[in-house]
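#structure-requests
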Amino acid sequence: MLTTHPGATDVPPPAGAHVHRRGDEPAFVARSEVMRRLLADIDAVGRSDATVLILGESGSGKELVARALHDRGPRVGGPFVAVNCAAFPDTLLEDELFGHERGAFTGAIGRRVGRFQAAHGGTLLLDEVGELSQMAQAKLLRVLQEGCVEPLGASRPVRVDVRVLSATHRDLRRMVAEGRFREDLYYRLNVLDLHVPPLRERREDLRPLVEHFLERYAGGGRVPRMTDRAWRALLAHAFPGNVRELKHAIEHAVVLARGGDVDVEHLPSEIGVRADMPPPSLDGDAPAPLADAVRHFERGHLVRSLRHCGGNRTRTARMLQISRKNLWEKMRAYDIRPAEFVDLTSHHRSN
């Protein structure tokens, strides 16, 4: 039996939503056609041993795609190793990728196996490959061409058998044209490519994703429901951080809701914008009237501006180039309340 809570939206799992699992952990929650096509491509590409370039914005799920390719491929029994190329300067990246022998440099008191050797017989993901320097690109190209690595201080190269996947949010074609990324390396990495769509292009997946994260962060207890106000705030948000941002937002909300239903004040401050009119449909229905769309945008812009200025209305009015009185009138007209632009996390921690 379903229990209805006042102000809560009781939504069953959407019909047609597809959940791909990696072991016991769901890797993809997909209802949208664009994600279904991506999953079909992963199934096809994963069976090969080809090098794949995974493209997509930060937080869109590129590493999940890489893991899914590994799980479907002939190397599924081998290791899956990921390295973030942007996390290391050149002086450390070579050691991270290729390793070193004992005594190779001051402080090298033992032998260290690099990521290429650790991935032998399996898959290596080079995440944020677009951040590699020209020197690092040259060294990586040599490894891909020869199938060998040379740990620092080693007397001979070490052969490695690794399927290389790479991921980036950069436009590598443009970087090649601008001379910032080696063309020969680009074609080595881009034997096949997969594009992971941003969340704004797969809005049909928002609801099943939210429900999945609500269940996940409920910790085995009662799964919270989203109020209508909270749903409107989520639907109005652009999610520049994609699924990663949504995941963190729901975890944040579940913690602050303390076992109750999730309302707009439980969401992170950058998302907690409550629209006074229904947002555009997720299923491609007719767009809202222009006047409603303008009001929707203006309200959100006001709230974001207030957050940017720490809630200081004088500074906000000056930044928006309107009078303080005009700002106050707009806040009253749109029913903008302090809970929508204060730092709820700091308030929670202080209590």
